[in-house]
């Protein structure tokens, strides 16, 4: 196994933030993307770029390297789907949100991938809220798709972590300490997190032994900043 972290969903949102953090830190990074040209415009020659479309499983089987340390999977959580559209049919949304994860998991198994797959999910799946009702209206079936894909990953036999994010924003990261808990929270504005902070957490999840096969929620706490050691300690606390 090498030190490379691959990001699926690398050209937008949290995936883009994760790629930029890897590049800025000088860490080996691979972007699995539908448009290599678009990714080249974002990352230049600072990352490895490979073609892979989560709706086309044959492309994932060719893209996945079994020796990667981990995969950060950020495809379509709560934002619009670039090139796929909001207010799409329930079937089309499921093909991306659930089917895309299923295709990735099966390609990993086919390739003998031994690293960890870190899946981005959302808080509020188990707690009724107005926010979740709105998301289900914008993207029909989002709640069920999100629950189903997490359960599929958990039963896959792969090493996994599921990160349930609070409501995402594009504010700069590093201005808040993070609350990390095994409990769910309703999808409400009081539970927010910057994509940059979420990306940092997801990258930390790739190799942290304490959170193998664990699911947790993360959102902003008080003003401040967690050092790497403090973040690691919060993740370790999940193991009890």
UniProtKB/TrEMBL annotation:
Coiled coil: none annotated. It comes from Immundisolibacter cernigliae. It comes from the Bacteria. InterPro entries: NAD(P)-bd_dom, NAD(P)-bd_dom_sf. Residues 9-209 form the NAD(P)-binding domain. This is NAD(P)-binding domain-containing protein. Pfam families: NAD_binding_10. Transmembrane segments: none annotated.
């Amino acid at each position: 196994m090498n030190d490379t972290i691959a990001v699926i969903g690398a050209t937008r949102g949290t995936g883009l933030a994760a790629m930029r953090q890897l590049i800025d830190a000088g860490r080996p990074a691979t972007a699995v993307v539908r448009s290599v040209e678009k990714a080249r415009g974002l990352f230049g020659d600072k990352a490895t770029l490979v073609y892979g479309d989560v709706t086309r499983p044959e492309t994932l089987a060719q893209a996945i390297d079994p020796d990667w340390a981990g995969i950060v999977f950020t495809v379509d959580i709560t934002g619009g789907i670039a090139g796929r559209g909001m207010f799409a049919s329930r079937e089309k949304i499921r093909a991306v949100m659930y089917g895309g994860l299923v295709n990735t998991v099966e390609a990993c198994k086919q390739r003998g991938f031994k690293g960890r797959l870190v899946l981005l999910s959302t808080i509020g799946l188990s707690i009724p809220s107005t926010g979740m009702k709105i998301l289900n209206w914008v993207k029909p079936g989002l709640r069920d798709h999100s629950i189903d894909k997490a359960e599929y990953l958990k039963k896959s036999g792969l090493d996994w972590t599921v990160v349930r994010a609070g409501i995402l924003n594009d504010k700069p990261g590093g201005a808040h300490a993070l609350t990390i808990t095994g409990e769910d929270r309703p999808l409400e504005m009081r539970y927010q997190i910057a994509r940059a902070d979420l990306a940092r957490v997801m990258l930390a999840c790739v190799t942290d032994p304490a959170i193998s096969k664990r699911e947790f929620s993360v959102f902003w706490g008080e003003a401040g900043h967690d050092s790497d050691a403090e973040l690691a300690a919060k993740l370790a606390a999940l193991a009890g």
